[in-house]
């Protein structure tokens, strides 16, 4: 198949070994061409904006801008780019949030090569692909079996900035470093931290860190 007919892919994952493995697997397909790689969320967004790939394989736990925020930005800067989430997370909150953010597919990192290939093919042909391991979660919850009056999880209620501050706190950054990184004042950072503790009913930074890890904002 000529390069003009190949689907153009970008692989976004901060683990070099996994990224290289994915690249080799995708390159083995005659209809696929890997045109870019990203090691964090901001690079993923830049690749989407400059390369306009047909598909991005997106890890949800990367440094800097986390996967969920990157996903939203990718869909904003390149609406035609399909995004296949590739993650270890299978919790209900995480699946729902990714789908609501615009994910076209959701596959787990412990999936087989054949399942990943099927997921890529499905998403590229306009279908939504959900890993069998989380399909029941989606059917029973996201598609309507959940009680519509049930309160949204606290994580879903956090703003994009609050999630970003939570991620940076969990990564061990100090208040002044977070302020400089986000171009806000230290007092604003402290306010966000207080709001996070109040909304999540937590009293310590260690509790916030454990929560961020649980939700996949950071990995340890």
Question: What is this structure's SSE topology?
Answer:
Elements: E1 7-12, H1 16-27, E2 32-38, H2 41-51, E3 55-59, H3 67-77, E4 82-87, H4 92-100, E5 105-108, H5 113-124, E6 129-130, H6 132-142, H7 154-157, H8 160-170, H9 175-182, H10 186-200, H11 205-214
Parallel strand pairs: 1-2, 1-3, 3-4, 4-5, 5-6
Topology order in helix (H) and strand (E) letters: EHEHEHEHEHEHHHHHH
Describe the biggest sheet?
Answer: 6 strands, parallel
| β-strand amount | 5-15%
Name the average pLDDT: 85
Characterize the structure shown:
- The protein has a 6-stranded parallel sheet with strand order 2-1-3-4-5-6, sandwiched between helices.
- Helix content is 52%, strand content 14%.
- It has 2 domains: 3-142, Response regulator (Rossmann fold), CATH 3.40.50.2300; 154-214, Arc Repressor Mutant, subunit A (Orthogonal Bundle), CATH 1.10.10.10.
- By secondary structure, it is α/β, with parallel strands linked by helices.
- It is built from 11 helices and 6 strands.
Key traits:
six-stranded parallel β-sheet; 11 helices; Rossmann fold; 14% strand; alpha/beta; 220 residues; Arc Repressor Mutant, subunit A; 6 strands
Short description:
Helices cover 52% and strands 14% of the residues. By secondary structure, it is of the alpha/beta class.
């Amino acid at each position: 198949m000529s390069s003009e007919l190949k689907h153009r892919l970008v692989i976004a994952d901060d683990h070099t070994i996994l990224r290289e493995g994915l690249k080799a697997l995708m390159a083995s397909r005659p209809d696929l061409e890997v045109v870019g790689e990203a090691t964090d969320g901001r690079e993923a967004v830049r690749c989407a904006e400059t390369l306009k790939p047909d598909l991005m394989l997106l890890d949800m736990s990367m440094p800097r801008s986390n996967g969920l925020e990157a996903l939203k930005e990718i869909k904003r800067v390149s609406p035609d780019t399909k995004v296949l989430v590739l993650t270890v997370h299978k919790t209900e909150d995480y699946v729902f949030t990714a789908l609501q953010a615009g994910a076209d597919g959701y596959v787990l990192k412990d999936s087989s090569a054949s399942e990943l290939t099927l997921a890529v093919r499905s998403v590229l042909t306009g279908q939504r692909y959900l890993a069998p391991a989380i399909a029941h979660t989606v059917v029973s919850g996201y598609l309507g079996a959940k009680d519509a009056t049930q309160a949204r999880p606290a994580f879903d209620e956090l703003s994009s900035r609050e999630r970003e501050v939570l991620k940076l706190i969990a990564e061990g950054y100090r208040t002044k470093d977070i302020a400089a990184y986000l171009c806000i004042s230290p007092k604003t950072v402290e306010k966000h931290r207080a709001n996070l503790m109040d909304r999540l009913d937590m009293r310590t930074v260690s509790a916030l860190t454990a929560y961020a890890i649980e939700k996949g904002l950071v990995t340890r």
